[in-house]
Each structure stands twice: as C-alpha cells, then as structure tokens.
Design brief:
The complex is a heterotrimer of chains A (about 160), B (about 90) and C (about 600). Chain A is an alpha+beta fold. Chain A is built from five helices and eight strands. In chain A, the strands form four sheets. In chain A, strands 1-8 form a two-stranded antiparallel sheet. Chain A has a two-stranded antiparallel ribbon with strand order 2-3. A two-stranded antiparallel ribbon of chain A has the order 4-5. Chain B has three helices and seven strands. In chain B, strand 3 and strand 4 form a beta hairpin. Chain C is α+β, with helices and mostly antiparallel strands and about 600 residues long. Chain C folds into three domains: about 200 residues, Aldehyde Ferredoxin Oxidoreductase,  A, domain 1 (4-Layer Sandwich); about 180 residues, Aldehyde Ferredoxin Oxidoreductase Protein, subunit A, domain 2 (Orthogonal Bundle); about 160 residues, Aldehyde Ferredoxin Oxidoreductase Protein, subunit A, domain 3, CATH 1.10.599.10. Chain C is about 40% helix and about 15% strand. In chain C, strand 16 and strand 17 form a beta hairpin. The chains are: A alpha+beta (about 160), B alpha+beta (about 90), C alpha+beta (about 600). Chains in contact: A-C, B-C. At the B-C interface, helix 1, strand 6 and strand 7 of B face helix 8 and helix 9 of C.
C-alpha cells in the first residue's frame, strides 16, 4: 500500500522539530536552510503550517526535467525522487514547482526536495504534535472525510 | 466536607466540586467512594494498586497528605479536600 | 568547534564598527554559553559600578551550545547586561526562535557596546552586518516593529526588539522576540533604549555541527521519551499551560493576594489554567525545538477587552489577578497583550500596580497622583489603564515605569514595595513556601522564581517532596536548584525540560554534541561557577549581605486567611546555613578556597 505524508496545520505548534530532524537526517548537522520541510509561522494569527513536497502524480518538476534526474521512484510508490548523478543543476524543477517545494542549495550544489527519507520520514518521527503523519494514501482521505462527517453529525445532534 | 477537583481530575469527575454531608473516616474511604462514583479514569489517577498514586497531589485544608498520614489521614466534617494531578509551570 | 559556532560578533554603536573574534574553547567549556558565557563577557568588560543606562554598559545576546539542535526544548538564549532596575549582573532568558537564528548566522554571542547618536537597528545576515537607521521604527509597538523590520530586511528574519517602554527607559522594560516571547526582568529593554537600539534582526543560513551524531541522536531520543512520559512535560503543560498553577498555589495558601497582604484569593479559580483553556485558548504554541508546548495562543471575545495574542502565563495571571485583587481573566489577558506590545515585564508591571493600589487604599496617594483614577484593589479597568499609562510613560505611568520600589520610596513608604534587591517577587508567597523565600532573598537578579525553583519539590511533588512549611534542608535544596538552573540556562535548554529530565541527560547530550567529555559532576560545577561569578560581580557593584533579604511584611505580618493563615517567612533560619553550604563567609562573600576550587 502506498503512503503519503499528511500535514495537520491545526496541530502544528511551530516548533520546527521537523526541520531539524530533516536536516540532521540528510546533512548530519542542524541547518534548517537545508531542510526539505519548512514550518512557517504567522505570529499575529498564532498559526503555523508545515510545507514539503506533495509527491505529485503529474509532477511539473518531472515534466520539465531535461535529464530524467527528477523521476517517479521505482522503489516506492507515491515518491518523486531526485538523482544527483544525472542532474545537471539547471534548476528547471525549482521554477516549475508551483509550491516552491523543490529548492536549489548552492552550498551543497543540490536540489532539496522531500524524499520521505525513502519511506521512513524523520520529520514524522520527531513531530511532537501529530501535525505530520505518514499514512496509507487511501486511509488519509477516508479519515479526513469521516472527521468532517463527524462535524455534521455533531451539528445535526445539536438541532435534532 | 467539600472536595474540589482541578485540571484533568476535574474532567474525570465531570464537576468542579462536591459537598459530602457524611464525612468518611479517612482519605482511603473518601477516595474509594469517589472512585466508585466517577469510574475508571478517576480511580487510575488517584490509586496505584491499593496505594496513593505518586502522580496525584491531595491537599487536606492546604496540607499535602504526604506530610500527613497519606491514605490513613483522618477526615472531619469541615475539611476541604483538593485533588490535583501533577502540575507545574512557573 | 562542535555545538559552538566558534565566533563572537561585536558591534560598537558609538563608532559604528563591526568586528569578530574567536570563541575561546576553554571559556566555552567552563561557562557553556548563554547566561554563563554572556556573564563572563560582561564580568570581564563592564565595570560593575558603571551606569547601567550609560554608554559603558554592554548588552550581550548569547545562545547556548544546545541551541539550534533538536535537543528537546533547547532553543533558548540569554540577554546579559548590567540590569538597570537594580544594578545586578542580569541575564534574561527567552525562547522563541531568535537564539537559534543567531547560531545559524554563525555566532555564539553578539556583544553590543557604546551608544548610537540616533535610533538604529541591526541587520545581521550571516556575515553581512549593517547598522541601519531606525527613525521610522521609533515609537512603534513590538509587533509593528517586527513587521516593519521584516519588510526592510527579510520576511523570514527573526526580530528581537523593544517597544515604547524600552524607548522611554522604563526600568521594567522587556526585550520581545517574534512578538510574543520575552527576555524579561531587571529592565533589560531600557538598556537597548539607552543605546538608541530599537531592534536586532537576524537571518542565518549556516549550521550547528555535531561531534558524535549517533550518540547525540540517541541521547536526544532518550531525553524526549522521558519528557513525553512525564505527566507535566508530556501532557499537563500542553493542556493547561503554566497558568494551571493558580489553583494549586491558592489551595496551598501561597498565592500572594492584594500586594502580599494575604496568601489566599477566594475566586482565584476564575483566573486559572482550567478557565483559560475553557474560555480563551485557541491552541498550544511551542518555542524552537520544543516538545512541551506550554505557550498559549489565545483570544478574548468580551467587548471591553477584545483581542488576540499569546498568554497569559501563570506569573502574569497572578500579577494582574490575585495580586491586584482581580478575578476577570479577560482583563488579565488583555493586560498581558498590552505588556507584550509596549514591551513591559508582566510580573513587575502587575506587582507595581498592586503596590500603587495599596498606597492608594492607605491614603498615601490620591486621585491627584493617579491622574484621577480610583486605584483600588479589584478595579479591573483601572489596572488595564495603568498598563497603558506605563507603556506610554505618561502621567502617573511615568512613576509606575520605574518599578514598585522607586514608586513606593518616592512617597516615603518603600515597605509597600514587594521586592528583593528592588525587583518584584513573583507568584509564590514565602510565608506559605519557606524555601522559595530563601531563593528570592539570595537570587542573583533579585526576586525571581526561575533561579531556584524549589516549588517543584515543596509544592508540586516533582520527583521528590518536601514540606513547604519546614525550613530544614531548604538551604541545600535551594543551592542544588540554583546551580542546576545556572548550568541548564547556559546550555540553551528550557527550564521546563526538567519536568522529565535532569542534569544527567543534559550532560549526556552536551558531551555528544560538543565532543567535550563532560560529566554530571563538571556540569553541576559549571552551575556553581556561574552562580559565584554573578555573586562576585554583584558584591563589587555594591550589594551586601543586607540585600539578601525579604520585605519586612513577609517576616512579621502573618498570612491572614486560607491554609497558611498565621505563617511568616523564617528566612533567618535558613540564610546562615545557605552561606555555609555555599562556601561563603558570614558576610556572604565567597571564600578564597571556594574561588580557587571554582577557578574563578
């Protein structure tokens, strides 16, 4: 069964443990600038939202990549993977991604995008709030639909 | 006597305080009867086996029962008992 | 270096000069960072007798070695300077994300010296440092300043700034970080104001490097699990915030009420964490790398006090609540928002209003002094208005802005100021909890709860339990807490991590991160060294044994109602033992042998 990284902004406290875990896993040091996930905070509203690659089925970064470095993974379903060896650092993927989720890092001459730590995302392990989940791709839709249905249920219970 | 509940204990009890006209003889009797009234979550919060849980703070007239006689602390009709989970801050 | 960046940034505002120097590895080892290393810098470079608001004072922003890593709740930094409220070697600890950003920009400390001729702010983007004109920022609140600075620098810059209170040199002014997190106490905001420094903005793209990545990760995972399994660190603080303490302190008879005239407030429950969670809480908030999330994102719906922001913490809810005889949580939270916007310390602000209320009720001051306001205990609207006046420094607010000691003294009645070393005491009555009184009296920055939080043992049963009404062994307890906290603050960790872990876990993380073979023994010795460093500096500044004191009220006026009725503080039973265990002489001066032992 394929899995997806799911975000719950309502549970995010803006602590950025996800960024720290990501940069530590990929770079062996703490450099949020190298993290593939970013948790943005709006202090006035008291809201935080984590952002990372959506692993699009019809991925713009894959479409524009001239060398095939950005490709759908053979090993893992629901993963758009990046191959450093075939990449020519043209940065077309960073321009094409509508979410800004592929970035070029000059310090390491790399494209930074979420690779789900090859199926075991460290950001999920380190999130203390349950704001990030790595779940079955069908289940996440069902859960969300059911959660919304529960709100209807509560509303109808109130009036009936 | 009056028993007051705080933080999660208030949630388990479903009320903030309760007046008890027939004061039980001691803390063990009081907590046993309250556990019977409020159920499992409350019982688990206050008892560890048949001992007082290490994660509960019970004050009798402001004194922690740890400094009195624990579960054997005698109670009187006019006492005020306050039940807290472990809390902190600063 | 690992853990440390190896570089200290120095900015001279008089000359407009920027320079860098290497972090001394031996000093880093012996003082860690933050409060310890920053304290060492101030001790070495600032004359203890200098004017805190003069050009010769310096202000140091310093994160710790753990800051910027995923050690749990370890994203903190200290602002270290000579504190203008009372002249101590001040260290104000703050969370938020400013400290980690300074590390990523490449610095173990930022030293600011001299004085700018006109308002400026600093823009630090890695190794590019600019001193920029701040004329357009002057007068703005802390949230507006933050937005304006970001618009001129980088939308993701982390901003530490003062509000109007710091600008008009209020001695209870804070420095605010990312709008809601405060470096408070001792009036550090006024030091920035005195230097014409409105804000410091930082953006960093660098890294904190780790000596033993596998070992560090293992130590961090262990510490995380211990905190998450703890009833307080794991669930309690997230659910109710620190304000959950209102009820347990009140039910213990140790909630100072109406300017410490009593120790019990009958309607305190209306101001506690349970009420806050039910009425105002939107969601919990975490500082950088926090797994506890005690922060409160809140809103107030009532028309009189409508607003949104963060807070209140327990101390704030008490200062504007029980201490002012007020049980309206909406007004308390609104007062908290205003303090954050003006950049005011909530403890000192609330306690100073409470002091003014007592002066008013005793007829020492009248409506002629208070700009026509009936400043009685329980007058909610008057309390909020006093915060406004203080923030602006207008009318009676200009007097409140100097703190309760100078206020009460100016009317000939310093005995109504509830302060130690001129700093307002926080929310635990020393008559109901003996050990905390010893900590207020000996606190190196004056009345303060986060220098030796014996409440954890005396009231909260955290790990061990001691009777709050007993004075036996409280000297030793206080010393252990003071030393542990000094080392913990200097490491970059949050005090609340101790609701789950202790010195052993912190030592393990520090050793794996830095590659220094720290032991628990050395860690505690570092804490003791830092405590003695602060003591030495204060003694040179002019403090004596006579300043290790509590307000007379707490020694002679028993609590009137509630569970601690009849009790007074028995400070004199504890203080001589404290000096002896500290290795200090009868005058409270560290002995030569002790200084040698600590390599001071």
């Amino acid at each position: 069964m394929a899995k997806v990284l799911m975000i719950h902004p309502d549970k995010c406290t803006g602590c950025r443990n996800c960024e720290l875990a990501c940069s530590f896993e990929h770079e062996g040091q703490f450099r949020p600038g190298a993290s593939r996930v970013q948790a943005y905070t709006w202090e006035r509203e008291g809201m935080s939202v984590p952002m990372m690659c959506q692993q699009c089925d019809d991925a713009a970064c894959v479409t524009v990549c001239p060398t095939g470095a950005m490709h759908r993974s053979n090993a893992l379903a629901n993963l758009v993977d990046w191959d450093a060896g075939t990449c020519i650092r043209c940065k077309m993927c960073t321009i094409a991604c509508p979410f800004g989720n592929a970035r070029y890092d000059a310090a390491s001459s790399s494209i930074f995008k979420c690779d789900t730590c090859q199926g075991a995302p460290e950001c999920v392990t380190f999130c203390p709030n349950g704001a990030l989940e790595f779940v079955d791709d069908e289940q996440h839709v069902r859960s969300r639909k059911k959660a919304y249905a529960a709100k209807f249920k509560d509303a109808f219970q109130e009036v009936s | 006597m009056t028993v007051k509940y705080f933080a999660t204990i208030r949630t388990y009890a479903g009320e903030t305080e309760r007046r008890i006209d027939d004061a039980p003889a001691g803390m063990r009797e009081l907590l046993t009867s309250l556990a019977a009234r409020y159920g499992t979550a409350f019982r688990r919060a206050v008892f560890s086996g048949d001992q007082l849980s290490g994660e509960i703070i019970i004050l009798v007239n402001g004194r922690n029962v740890v400094h009195l006689e624990g579960l054997d602390t005698p109670l009187e009709a006019g006492d005020e008992v306050s039940i807290f989970p472990m809390v902190a801050g600063g | 270096m690992f853990g440390w960046t190896g570089t200290i940034l120095r900015i001279d505002l008089t000359k407009g000069k920027v320079s860098r120097e290497a972090t001394d590895p031996q000093l880093a080892r012996d003082y860690l960072g933050a409060r310890g290393l920053g304290g060492h810098i101030v001790r070495s470079e600032v004359d203890p007798k200098t004017d805190a608001l003069g050009a010769d004072n310096k202000i140091v922003f310093a994160p710790g070695p753990l800051t910027g890593t995923f050690a749990p709740a370890a994203g903190r930094f200290d602002v270290v300077t000579k504190g203008p409220l009372n002249g101590v070697l001040a260290a104000s600890n703050s969370g938020g994300t400013f400290g980690p950003e300074l590390k990523y920009a490449g610095y173990d400390a930022l030293i600011i010296e001299g004085k700018s001729a006109k308002p400026v702010y600093l823009w630090i983007k890695d190794d590019q440092v600019e001193i920029r004109d701040a004329a357009a920022l002057w007068g703005h609140t802390t949230p507006d300043t933050t937005d304006l600075v970001r618009a001129e620098t980088d939308e993701d810059a982390k901003v530490s700034c003062i509000g109007p209170a710091g600008e008009h040199l209020s001695l209870i002014a804070n420095i605010m970080n990312e709008m809601h997190r405060a470096a408070g106490r001792t009036g550090v905001g006024a030091v920035m104001g005195s230097k014409n420094l409105k804000a410091v903005a930082v953006f960093g793209s660098g890294a904190v490097k780790v000596a033993d990545p596998e070992g560090f990760k293992a130590a961090v995972m262990k510490a995380r699990q211990m905190i998450q399994a703890h009833p307080v660190g794991g669930t309690g603080l997230r659910a109710y915030g620190t304000d959950v303490l209102v009820n347990i302190l009140n039910q213990s008879g140790a909630l100072p009420t109406r300017n410490f005239q009593d120790g019990y407030f009958p309607t305190a429950d209306k101001t506690g964490g349970e009420s806050l969670a039910a009425k105002q809480l939107i969601r919990p908030k975490g500082c950088f790398s926090c797994i506890i999330s005690c922060g409160r994102v809140t809103k107030v719906d009532s028309p009189d006090y409508k607003g949104s922001g963060e807070g209140p913490e327990y101390e704030t809810a008490w200062a504007f609540g029980a201490d002012c005889g007020i049980d309206d949580l909406d007004a308390i939270t609104k007062a908290n928002y205003y303090c954050n916007e003006y950049g005011l310390d909530t403890i000192s602000m609330g306690s100073t209003v409470a002091c003014a209320m007592e002066l008013f009720e005793r007829g020492i001051i009248t409506t002629e002094d208070t700009d026509g306001v009936q400043l009685t205990f329980g007058n909610t609207a008057a309390m909020v208005e006093m915060v406004h006046k203080t923030g602006k420094g207008e009318g009676f607010g200009a007097k409140l802005a100097q703190g309760s000691y100078r206020l009460a003294e100016s009317y000939g009645h310093p005995e109504y100021s509830m302060t130690c070393k001129k700093q307002e005491m926080p929310a635990y009555d020393p008559r109901g909890v003996q050990g905390i009184g010893l900590n207020y009296a000996t606190g190196n920055r004056g009345g303060c709860h986060v220098r030796g939080y014996t409440i954890a043992i005396e009231v909260l049963q955290n790990g061990a339990v001691m009777d709050p009404h007993v004075t036996d062994d409280k000297a030793g307890l206080g010393i252990t807490f003071q030393d542990l906290t000094a080392a913990l603050d200097s490491s970059g960790a949050c005090l609340f991590a101790t609701f789950g872990i202790g010195g052993a876990e912190l030592t393990e993380m520090l050793a794996a991160l830095t590659g220094v073979d720290y032991t628990l023994d050395e860690f505690m010795r570092i804490g003791e060294r830092i405590w003695n460093q602060e003591r030495l500096w204060n003694l040179t500044a002019g403090f004596t044994k006579a300043d290790d004191a509590l307000p007379q009220r707490l020694l002679t006026e028993p609590i009137k109602t509630g569970p601690s009725k009849g009790h007074v503080s028995r400070l004199d039973d504890m203080l001589p033992e404290y000096y002896e265990l500290r290795g200090w002489d009868e005058e409270g001066v560290p002995t030569e042998a002790k200084l040698k032992e600590l390599a001071l």
